[in-house]
Amino acid sequence: MSTPLYQLKAEFFKTLGHPARIRILELLSERDHSVSELLPEVGIEAAHLSQQLAVLRRSNLVVSRKEGSTVHYSLTTPLVADLLDMARQILTEMLSGQAEMLHDLQAAHAPLRAASSRS
């Protein structure tokens, strides 16, 4: 029996569920990077970066190619960059809604503060 699509999606999102992996994918969305370029940008130890890249390779989100002694990584599809951009848009919209709610709460509280300061 084949794996249900919702389960495959859950596994896919689990793969994306690590901040270092998201940062790696963001950087690779801009251009291909070598491991030495990724290290300072991701801000984790080399061994940990290697583990995270291995997870992304196994999930077929990134591919590697060797040029001499340097290993370069790239996205397997530009759709990954599109997904990250969509996530940014969703978060922006959600946070914008929260900012509006905060503004409304502060505005509703302002008359109460003014009345209590006059007492």
What does this protein structure show overall?
Keywords: DNA-binding, Transcription, Transcription regulation. Helix content is 71%, strand content 12%. It is mainly alpha-helical and 119 residues long. It has a three-stranded antiparallel sheet. Strand 2 and strand 3 form a beta hairpin. The termini are far apart.
CATH C-level class of the largest domain is Mainly Alpha
Distance between the termini: 73 Å
Strand order of the largest sheet: 1-3-2
Task: Describe the largest sheet.
Answer: 3 strands, antiparallel
CATH overall fold name of the largest domain: Arc Repressor Mutant, subunit A
User: What is the overall silhouette?
Assistant: elongated
Classify the helix fraction into a percent range: over 70%
The computed structural class is mainly alpha
Discrete helix count: 5
The string of secondary-structure elements, in order, is HHEHHEEH
Pfam families: HTH_5
Organism: Sinosporangium album
InterPro entries: ArsR-like_HTH (IPR011991), HTH_ArsR_DNA-bd_dom (IPR001845), Metal_resp_trans_reg (IPR051011), WH-like_DNA-bd_sf (IPR036388), WH_DNA-bd_sf (IPR036390)
Protein name: ArsR family transcriptional regulator
